[in-house]
Write a structure and sequence with these properties.
two-stranded antiparallel sheet; globular
Length: 155
């Protein structure tokens, strides 16, 4: 059962690239963009990680945390972050517990199933506010900043 807009987002406890445990409650009082990407060190995922790193200050200034999630393990995330000097956390979900709880879809690419590029916007109380499916990694961070700005203004 996927989380629906207006409901509390799925609780999670996952390791980041530094093997530190990160939970949903760590973001209480902040907006959170949790973005799901298919695989470390692939072209679209690299674009997305670089874009979020380049705009991190804009997200920080707006009190928005950004974390990436994939089914890759901690070691893979660490190598990916180091290779491209990412300043955002990447959470490892090798058992796909969060990916499944959040209702992320999968697509076949050349005979292999990958998790769809999906972004979730979670408000400071932990409530899911918006879902973006099959995201285009180019410029997505700007769309998120603008949309969250509008959500804050409407609150």
């Amino acid at each position: 059962m996927a989380v629906e807009i207006g409901q509390r987002f799925a609780d999670f406890s996952l390791q980041n690239q530094d093997d530190k445990t990160v939970t949903l409650d760590d973001f209480a009082g902040k907006w959170l963009v949790l973005y799901v990407y298919p695989k470390d060190d692939t072209p679209g995922c690299t674009i997305q990680g670089k874009s979020f790193t380049a705009s991190k200050q804009d997200f920080d200034d707006a009190n928005i945390a950004v974390v990436g999630v994939s089914a890759d393990d901690v070691e893979s995330h660490k190598n990916f972050c180091n290779k491209f000097a990412f300043t955002i956390d990447l959470l490892a979900d090798p058992n796909t517990e969060l990916l499944e709880a959040a209702g992320v879809g999968q697509s076949d690419y050349k005979g292999t199933m990958y998790w769809n590029r999906t972004s979730f916007v979670i408000d400071p109380s932990g409530t899911l506010r918006k879902v973006y499916e099959k995201v285009n990694p180019e410029g997505h961070e700007q769309v998120l900043l603008n949309d969250i700005d509008e959500m804050k203004a409407a609150a």
